[in-house]
Design goal:
heterodimer; A: about 350 residues; mainly alpha; ABC transporter involved in vitamin B12 uptake, BtuC; two-stranded antiparallel sheet; disordered C terminus; B: alpha/beta; 3 domains; 18 helices; 22 strands
Chain lengths: ~350, ~500
């Protein structure tokens, strides 16, 4: 194993181990058996739809984390993935439920509308950042709140929504607009959008590692001054990076919208944007790392339910998720410094600079 | 070296060793400073002078060795410990609050010594006379010149009780006349019993002011010398340990083919002050090096960045080989054949966290051989990085190490190699050998000369007057954002150039 891969794997494995250890301590202190709790969580994977639910959920998290990671590459903190995905899901649901279109085209239109809506919603902070220097952290957070109001307006029965029971919902999307999944009988149905998530991951890898745009994005993130001297247009990069991030964020709600719910309602899920931030950190903005992080996170979420069965508070999972993020951040920093030292030593060893002291002087 | 009783020495360092991965640190350095002398510490850039002084001033701990003050062994964990022992340090880059007054700057953080009232004022007035500071204590620091700021820095450390003052390259920011005044002050203070540790690599200055010279090279002390008897040549050989490089360009290669023409270039101060640049006219021909001389902060940075298209709101025109590029982006100018060596290597020229080959891409991501239709050709970038590493003697175990792991000189050789690739027509070089060791400096000079002979036009900005005079075919002096005169590098002396730089006479 090359040292690079070793340190990339070492940090998260260490961090997860430390987090599990601390969680075990927390369980012991609260009088529960850590072994029993962890055992029940793992054995859950084999029962019911937990395994499929985990993968489905991971796909959603994966897209959200990719959206966040695109911004992170340029040191842009798009906290608004949450608002962008919800606005995009609501708009896509309205358009998809209203427009009668033939199959395939219907699905594609919904996906395109979602991406464009996500990009449009982030365009506000992107323009503010590029032309007025407004911190994207502040403006995207505030637009998350605005998004809630906008969605309430969009799906209200007075505009595009309808009252069903005591829930408000957009008009249901016809089956022509659905994204077909893979039915696994008793175990549940895998979202077809998992494929889209995978394609996004590959696209992200290619874009960052192989294209001029990706190079300029990373250069701007690592050293805005060096990037400017190297001919990178900082303003343009801010705009494109945030718009791309927003477009990807727009797709976050689609696996559930096109694969399960087929309408956006008052009770449609939220919080994926914030989870995405944690997972992007966990995966170190690397497409494979993010995938593993998303699976881990989804597994913890889905298996937590089983803890009630053995009388262990399921909130222990929240503690564990928090601890994982904290320890991952710490572990990466430690490993990064150790690596840097090791590399400097290696360079110094390979380039002898110290001559023999000359016999001069008094 | 003497081994007499400790009390003879104000400061004594024995066997100081500091290991620092990747850079030349300190190895078994001995330094003994007698009370009431000016002791010069000489060595090339990167020889380990600053590290040694940081250890003496408590900013870094030594791995081995001892420090004694007035014969008593001490351990400094923070600069506060060093100050308490009577050692003060004046950094090369001043640490003053511009928007506070002279007196406030002195008192800041030292309020407990003499209060902030009459007693403090009296003490400041007394010390101002000692250091030769004539500015009023109620003057704001932003209105002070560089020389006065330096005196204020010395005053600050004296106020805190220093008897031994470390001066880190104090003359780097001064013109020759100011250097003479500083030396007069130091001599007077020496007579009052103050001790100075004077860090410099300028031989004439060292011989003019020092009582004893300790030379360090490549992180170790190579000996002491008596300034009364040692010659510049001997001193230089102690410092360099090999034959001295000279920046002298031999035959003129200047052609009459115009490469860069700048006409009426101006740049307003975004903060609303006087213009940063005004009415700059200059021409650089193929095969010509045009040197810009000036005290730092007189518009050199702005001039370079305006030519590179990195500043907004410039007036006037920039023509490259007859084509107007005034409105072009930095990338378009680079594509048109401008290479750029920025003054601050780590901030403007490199991505320290990226491997060498990725740094080769920076600035060339849009052009062959590296950029093709929006994609990056990694193989081409890697092979061309191998070429630079070989041709420019970049000392590295490979092209996959991060740029930040290289020493400054090797980083700079990589940057010069990169900017000279793709056959540029113009090279904009700001301080191309700043902070690099002597070997790298000689290498960079010879590469610049070779490219110039091949018809490259060079706009050179440097604070090193010897480098400017040695490399340039034509010299222009910049003062307050204006070009105020020209000089012939064949006849001008550093002193004359220094005079012109202050605007005393053109």
């Amino acid at each position: 194993m090359s040292p690079k891969i070793r340190s990339a794997v070492l940090a998260p494995v260490l961090a997860v181990a430390v987090a599990a250890l601390l969680c075990g301590l927390a369980l012991l202190i609260s009088g529960d058996s850590p072994l029993q709790a962890f055992g029940v969580m793992i054995s859950q994977l084999g029962s019911g739809t937990v395994a499929v639910d985990t993968v489905n959920s991971a796909a959603v998290y994966y897209i959200a984390a990719l959206a966040v990671a695109i911004g992170f590459q340029m040191k842009l903190f798009n906290i608004g993935v949450e608002g962008q995905f919800r606005v995009a899901a609501a708009v896509a649901a309205v358009v998809g439920g209203t427009l009668p279109l033939p199959p395939v085209l219907h699905t594609l239109v919904i996906i395109a509308v979602a991406a464009l809506s996500g990009a449009a919603w982030v365009a506000i902070p992107a323009l503010l950042k590029a032309y007025r220097g407004v911190s994207e952290v502040i403006s995207t957070i505030m637009l998350n709140a605005v998004a809630t109001g906008l969605i309430a307006y969009l799906i209200s029965p007075d505009t595009f929504g309808q009252l069903v029971g005591n829930n408000i919902t957009t008009p249901p999307i016809e089956p022509s607009g659905w994204f077909p999944g893979l039915a696994l009988g008793e175990s549940g149905t895998l979202f077809g959008m998992i494929l889209v998530a995978a394609v996004l991951g590959v696209g992200y890898w290619f874009l960052l590692g192989r294209t001029r745009f990706g190079f300029e994005l990373r250069a701007s993130g690592q050293s805005p001054t060096a990037a400017a001297a190297g001919g990178v247009n900082a303003r343009r990069m801010v705009l494109i990076a945030l718009l791309t991030s927003g477009a990807v964020a727009g797709l976050v709600g689609l696996p559930e919208l096109l694969g399960r719910d087929h309408a956006y309602t008052l009770t449609s899920p939220s919080g994926y944007g914030f989870t995405g931030i944690a997972i992007a950190l966990l995966g170190r903005n690397h497409p494979v790392g993010i995938a593993l992080g998303a699976l881990l996170w989804a597994f913890l979420d889905k298996s937590a339910v089983a803890l009630d069965v053995v009388g262990t508070p399921r909130e222990i999972v929240l503690i564990m998720q928090g601890l994982i993020v904290l320890s991952v951040v710490v572990a990466y920093e430690v490993v990064r410094r150790v690596d840097l030292r090791a590399e400097q030593r290696r360079v110094a060893a390979a380039t002898p600079t110290r001559p023999r002291p000359a016999e001069v002087g008094t | 070296m003497s081994t007499a009783a400790g009390s003879e020495y104000a400061v004594e360092l024995r066997g100081i060793t500091k290991r620092f991965p990747g850079v030349v640190a300190n190895s078994d350095i001995d330094l003994a400073v007698r009370r009431g002398e000016v002791h010069a510490l000489c060595g090339e850039n990167g020889a380990g002078k600053s590290t040694l002084m940081k250890i003496l001033y408590g900013m870094q701990g030594a791995d081995e060795g001892t420090i004694s003050v007035d014969g008593t062994e001490v351990v400094f964990r923070t600069p506060g410990d060093a100050i308490a022992a009577g050692i003060g340090m004046v950094h090369q880059h001043f640490m003053l609050a511009d928007n506070l007054t002279v007196a406030e700057n002195v008192l800041l953080g030292a309020e407990r010594l003499h209060g902030i009232g009459r007693r403090a004022r009296d003490r400041i007035a007394e010390l101002a006379a000692t250091v030769g500071l004539v500015a009023s204590p109620s003057e704001r620091v932003e209105r002070l010149g560089v020389a006065d700021r330096q005196r204020l820095e010395i005053l600050k450390v004296l106020y805190r009780g220093a008897r031994t003052v470390i001066l880190d390259e104090p003359t780097a920011v001064l013109v020759p006349q100011e250097v003479d005044e500083l030396f007069a002050t130091l001599a007077a203070m020496r007579a009052q019993g103050y001790t100075f540790l004077f860090i410099s690599h300028k031989l004439d200055e060292v011989r003019a002011i020092a009582d004893t010279i300790t030379v360090i090279r490549r992180g170790t002390s190579v000996g002491t010398a008596d300034p009364a008897t040692v010659t510049n040549r001997e001193l230089a050989e102690m410092m360099v340990g090999s034959e001295l490089p000279t920046p002298q360009t031999r035959d003129s290669t200047v052609t009459d083919r115009e490469v860069l023409r700048v006409a009426g270039l101006g740049l307003a101060d975004p903060a609303g002050g006087r213009d940063l640049l005004d009415g700059i006219d200059l021409v650089v021909h193929a095969g010509e090096v045009l040197g810009i001389a000036g005290v730092e902060g007189n518009g050199q940075t702005e001039l370079v960045e305006s030519v590179m298209g990195m500043r907004r709101g410039t007036r006037g025109r920039v023509l490259l080989a007859g084509t107007d590029v005034s409105g072009a982006t930095t990338m378009a100018r680079r594509e048109a054949g401008i290479g750029y060596i920025p003054e601050d290597r780590s901030r403007h020229a490199l991505l320290p966290e990226q491997p060498l080959w990725a740094n080769r891409v920076l600035g060339f991501q849009s052009r062959a051989p590296i950029g093709r239709r929006g994609l990056i050709d990694r193989a081409a970038a890697r092979s061309d990085t191998e070429r630079i590493v070989a041709d420019f003697d970049v000392r590295t175990p490979g092209i996959d190490v991060t740029a930040g792991a290289l020493s400054g000189g090797n980083q700079q050789k990589l940057v010069v190699g990169r900017e000279l690739s793709g056959d540029p027509v113009l090279l904009v070089a700001a301080h191309p050998t700043r902070g690099v060791d002597v070997g790298a400096q000689a290498g960079i000079w010879s590469e610049l000369r070779r490219a110039r002979a091949a018809g490259l036009a060079v706009l050179l900005v440097s604070a090193d007057l010897d480098e400017l005079i040695g490399l340039s075919d034509t010299l222009a002096v910049i003062l307050d954002g204006r070009l105020v005169g020209t000089a012939d590098p064949a006849t001008v002396t550093p002193e004359q150039l220094g005079t012109a730089m202050t605007g005393a006479t053109a």
